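The instructor's notes for this session suggest beginning with a concrete chain rather than abstract definitions. Hand out the sequence below and ask the class to guess, before any prediction is shown, which regions might be ordered.
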Amino acid sequence: MSPTPTTLLGLLLCLGPTIQARQGYLPRPSISAEPGSVIPWGTSVTFVCQGPPEVEVFLLEKDGKPDSLPDVKNSSGIETEARFPISSVKTDTAGRYNCIYFIGNANSEPSEFLELVVTGGPSDISPSPTEAGFQTDPTLQNYKVRNCVHLGLAGVVLLMLLVILAEAWHSQCRSQRGPTGWRQDGTSQRD
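After discussion, reveal the predicted structure:
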Protein backbone atom coordinates (compact mmCIF):
# COMPACT_ATOMS: atom_id res chain seq x y z
CA MET A 1 0.00 0.00 0.00
CA SER A 2 1.62 3.24 -1.10
CA PRO A 3 1.06 6.56 0.74
CA THR A 4 -1.45 8.91 -0.80
CA PRO A 5 -0.48 12.49 -1.71
CA THR A 6 -2.66 13.78 1.15
CA THR A 7 -0.80 11.61 3.68
CA LEU A 8 2.57 12.78 2.33
CA LEU A 9 1.47 16.40 2.51
CA GLY A 10 0.28 15.97 6.13
CA LEU A 11 3.55 14.25 7.07
CA LEU A 12 5.56 17.01 5.41
CA LEU A 13 3.57 19.73 7.22
CA CYS A 14 4.05 18.00 10.57
CA LEU A 15 7.72 17.15 10.17
CA GLY A 16 8.75 20.17 8.12
CA PRO A 17 9.64 22.48 11.04
CA THR A 18 11.47 19.63 12.82
CA ILE A 19 13.51 18.87 9.71
CA GLN A 20 14.25 22.58 9.24
CA ALA A 21 15.29 22.88 12.89
CA ARG A 22 17.72 20.00 12.51
CA GLN A 23 19.17 21.70 9.44
CA GLY A 24 19.63 24.94 11.43
CA TYR A 25 16.81 26.99 9.90
CA LEU A 26 14.03 28.16 12.17
CA PRO A 27 11.46 30.70 11.05
CA ARG A 28 11.62 34.10 12.66
CA PRO A 29 9.16 34.60 15.57
CA SER A 30 6.79 37.54 15.78
CA ILE A 31 6.39 39.95 18.69
CA SER A 32 3.56 42.24 19.73
CA ALA A 33 2.54 44.23 22.81
CA GLU A 34 -0.87 44.32 24.48
CA PRO A 35 -2.59 46.77 24.77
CA GLY A 36 -0.05 48.50 22.48
CA SER A 37 3.52 49.73 22.16
CA VAL A 38 2.85 53.20 23.64
CA ILE A 39 2.04 52.78 27.33
CA PRO A 40 1.39 55.36 30.09
CA TRP A 41 3.80 55.25 33.03
CA GLY A 42 2.63 52.93 35.84
CA THR A 43 0.26 50.81 33.71
CA SER A 44 0.75 47.21 32.56
CA VAL A 45 1.90 45.77 29.26
CA THR A 46 2.23 42.19 28.01
CA PHE A 47 4.69 41.15 25.30
CA VAL A 48 3.41 38.29 23.13
CA CYS A 49 5.93 36.16 21.22
CA GLN A 50 4.68 33.70 18.58
CA GLY A 51 6.47 30.80 16.93
CA PRO A 52 5.81 27.26 15.67
CA PRO A 53 4.19 24.62 17.93
CA GLU A 54 7.46 22.73 18.48
CA VAL A 55 9.00 25.62 20.46
CA GLU A 56 10.49 24.51 23.77
CA VAL A 57 11.48 27.90 25.22
CA PHE A 58 10.70 31.51 24.35
CA LEU A 59 13.15 34.23 25.37
CA LEU A 60 12.41 37.99 25.49
CA GLU A 61 15.32 40.35 24.85
CA LYS A 62 15.56 44.09 25.50
CA ASP A 63 18.01 46.11 23.41
CA GLY A 64 19.59 42.86 22.15
CA LYS A 65 20.24 41.45 25.66
CA PRO A 66 18.18 38.94 27.65
CA ASP A 67 15.56 40.75 29.72
CA SER A 68 15.11 40.11 33.43
CA LEU A 69 11.75 38.43 32.78
CA PRO A 70 11.87 34.63 33.09
CA ASP A 71 11.95 32.50 29.95
CA VAL A 72 8.66 30.80 29.06
CA LYS A 73 8.86 27.04 28.61
CA ASN A 74 6.37 25.31 26.32
CA SER A 75 5.68 22.12 28.27
CA SER A 76 2.72 20.97 26.18
CA GLY A 77 4.48 21.27 22.84
CA ILE A 78 1.35 22.70 21.23
CA GLU A 79 1.52 26.33 22.38
CA THR A 80 2.51 28.77 19.66
CA GLU A 81 2.90 31.84 21.84
CA ALA A 82 4.42 33.01 25.10
CA ARG A 83 3.26 35.95 27.19
CA PHE A 84 5.66 38.17 29.14
CA PRO A 85 3.64 40.48 31.45
CA ILE A 86 5.02 43.62 33.09
CA SER A 87 2.63 44.86 35.78
CA SER A 88 3.83 48.47 36.09
CA VAL A 89 6.00 50.08 33.42
CA LYS A 90 8.56 52.69 34.42
CA THR A 91 10.69 55.05 32.35
CA ASP A 92 13.51 52.49 32.19
CA THR A 93 11.06 49.87 30.82
CA ALA A 94 11.04 51.71 27.49
CA GLY A 95 13.28 50.27 24.79
CA ARG A 96 13.56 47.89 21.85
CA TYR A 97 12.30 44.34 22.52
CA ASN A 98 12.55 41.18 20.45
CA CYS A 99 11.90 37.44 20.85
CA ILE A 100 13.96 34.30 20.25
CA TYR A 101 12.80 30.72 20.65
CA PHE A 102 14.57 27.39 20.99
CA ILE A 103 13.82 23.96 19.60
CA GLY A 104 16.31 21.45 20.96
CA ASN A 105 19.77 22.98 20.65
CA ALA A 106 18.77 25.26 17.77
CA ASN A 107 17.59 28.82 18.27
CA SER A 108 15.65 31.00 15.89
CA GLU A 109 16.88 34.26 14.54
CA PRO A 110 15.53 37.22 16.52
CA SER A 111 12.14 38.67 15.73
CA GLU A 112 11.80 42.19 14.41
CA PHE A 113 12.32 44.82 17.11
CA LEU A 114 9.28 46.26 18.87
CA GLU A 115 9.84 49.75 20.28
CA LEU A 116 8.09 50.21 23.64
CA VAL A 117 7.43 53.86 24.47
CA VAL A 118 6.51 54.87 28.04
CA THR A 119 4.67 58.18 28.27
CA GLY A 120 4.40 60.42 31.31
CA GLY A 121 6.09 59.74 34.61
CA PRO A 122 5.59 60.01 38.35
CA SER A 123 5.52 63.80 38.18
CA ASP A 124 2.67 63.67 35.64
CA ILE A 125 0.22 62.12 38.08
CA SER A 126 -2.74 64.46 38.22
CA PRO A 127 -3.16 66.45 41.44
CA SER A 128 -6.00 65.83 43.86
CA PRO A 129 -9.06 68.06 43.45
CA THR A 130 -8.04 70.11 46.51
CA GLU A 131 -4.57 70.80 45.09
CA ALA A 132 -5.97 71.54 41.65
CA GLY A 133 -8.47 74.05 43.13
CA PHE A 134 -5.72 75.67 45.18
CA GLN A 135 -3.55 76.19 42.13
CA THR A 136 -6.26 77.68 39.92
CA ASP A 137 -8.36 79.80 42.34
CA PRO A 138 -7.44 83.47 41.62
CA THR A 139 -8.42 84.70 45.11
CA LEU A 140 -5.97 82.26 46.67
CA GLN A 141 -3.30 83.44 44.24
CA ASN A 142 -3.95 87.05 45.41
CA TYR A 143 -3.51 85.98 49.03
CA LYS A 144 -0.18 84.39 48.14
CA VAL A 145 1.05 87.62 46.58
CA ARG A 146 -0.15 89.69 49.54
CA ASN A 147 1.54 87.33 51.99
CA CYS A 148 4.82 87.59 50.06
CA VAL A 149 4.61 91.40 50.11
CA HIS A 150 3.90 91.38 53.87
CA LEU A 151 6.83 89.05 54.55
CA GLY A 152 9.11 91.29 52.48
CA LEU A 153 8.04 94.40 54.39
CA ALA A 154 8.48 92.62 57.70
CA GLY A 155 12.01 91.70 56.64
CA VAL A 156 12.82 95.33 55.78
CA VAL A 157 11.43 96.56 59.14
CA LEU A 158 13.46 93.91 60.97
CA LEU A 159 16.58 95.00 59.13
CA MET A 160 15.94 98.64 60.04
CA LEU A 161 15.48 97.69 63.71
CA LEU A 162 18.79 95.82 63.63
CA VAL A 163 20.54 98.90 62.18
CA ILE A 164 19.01 101.14 64.90
CA LEU A 165 20.03 98.65 67.60
CA ALA A 166 23.58 98.48 66.25
CA GLU A 167 23.81 102.30 66.17
CA ALA A 168 22.51 102.56 69.74
CA TRP A 169 25.02 99.98 70.95
CA HIS A 170 27.85 101.77 69.16
CA SER A 171 26.77 105.14 70.63
CA GLN A 172 26.63 103.70 74.13
CA CYS A 173 30.12 102.23 73.80
CA ARG A 174 31.46 105.60 72.59
CA SER A 175 29.77 107.53 75.38
CA GLN A 176 31.33 105.28 78.01
CA ARG A 177 34.79 106.02 76.60
CA GLY A 178 34.02 109.69 76.45
CA PRO A 179 34.95 112.19 73.78
CA THR A 180 38.31 111.75 72.15
CA GLY A 181 41.08 113.07 74.35
CA TRP A 182 39.03 113.09 77.59
CA ARG A 183 38.97 110.57 80.40
CA GLN A 184 35.89 109.40 82.26
CA ASP A 185 36.79 111.55 85.31
CA GLY A 186 36.71 114.66 83.12
CA THR A 187 40.42 115.42 83.05
CA SER A 188 42.29 115.87 79.86
CA GLN A 189 44.65 113.18 78.70
CA ARG A 190 47.16 115.85 77.69
CA ASP A 191 47.91 116.79 81.34
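Then share the key points. Confidence is low (pLDDT under 50) at residues 128-137. The radius of gyration is 40 Å.
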